[in-house]
Specification:
alpha+beta, Alpha-Beta Plaits, 2 domains, 5-stranded mixed beta sheet, elongated, binds flavin mononucleotide
């Protein structure tokens, strides 16, 4: 398999309708070919990563390069891979806006005006940051929040189980002391066992 990333400039601004048609086409075609990836679009610029079998990605790239919806194409990177990064997307999509950029803390000084072929060609690290948050599995802030809640609930369950266990042990300590005291058998060995148990509860 290979992963290929390119940059291009739109021929003319795409309406929401045209974008939707483009993405529908991507989803339909890519699913059948086992192609996954991500397409970012903003400031008249496309940044796309495609991954899949080499021959299929190269054939698609040739088609894309000839597409009149955009102008000259700059292939930034083509690499052999054994694992995909965008397993969840037949073609993920995001419109790059000032707002989406503000959500990436490491790109605080990167403005939408810099989302253009010339700037990005010379700033590999920015491309990485832009693409990385869409990689499987946790790119979506909502999913990250749900995951954080899942973890909190799991931790609370563990705390609760621990507390229940402790109270069970404490009850047993009390019951055993009452029991043996009633029978007049509260000896040193028993007291030591009680002490050890109490220590473990603290
Ligand atoms: C920026 C951009 C990205 C594209 N990405 C894809 C893609 O991921 N998959 C795809 O099949 N076509 C993509 N296309 C469309 C292709 O250029 C081409 O129109 C399409 O593959 C032709 O499909 P068809 O052979 O089913 O008619 C893209 C076009 C543009 C302008």
């Amino acid at each position: 398999m290979i992963r290929l990333t390119y940059l291009s400039q739109e021929a003319q601004p795409l309406s929401a309708d045209e974008l939707l048609a483009l993405l529908t086409q991507c989803h339909q075609n890519n699913t059948g070919k086992g192609i996954t990836g991500m397409l970012l679009y903003g400031n008249g610029t496309f940044l796309q990563t495609l991954e899949g079998e080499k021959a299929l990605v190269e054939a698609l790239m040739a088609k894309i390069a000839a597409d009149p919806r955009h102008g000259s194409i700059n292939v930034l990177k083509q690499e052999s891979i054994t694992e995909r990064q965008y397993t969840e997307w037949s073609m993920g999509f995001e419109r790059v806006t000032e707002k989406t950029l503000a959500e990436i803390p490491s790109l605080r000084n990167f403005g939408l005006r810099n989302f253009n072929a010339e700037y990005l060609r010379n700033h590999d690290e920015v491309i990485e940051k832009l693409l990385e948050r869409h990689r499987a599995p946790h790119w979506d802030p909502l999913i990250r929040e749900l995951d954080a809640r899942d973890k909190l609930i799991k931790d609370l369950r563990a705390e609760l189980a621990h507390a229940r266990n402790n109270s069970e042990m404490a009850a047993l300590v009390l019951e055993s002391v009452v029991e043996v005291a009633k029978n007049g058998r509260l000896d040193d060995a028993h007291l030591e066992m009680v002490r050890t148990t109490l220590r473990s509860l603290r």
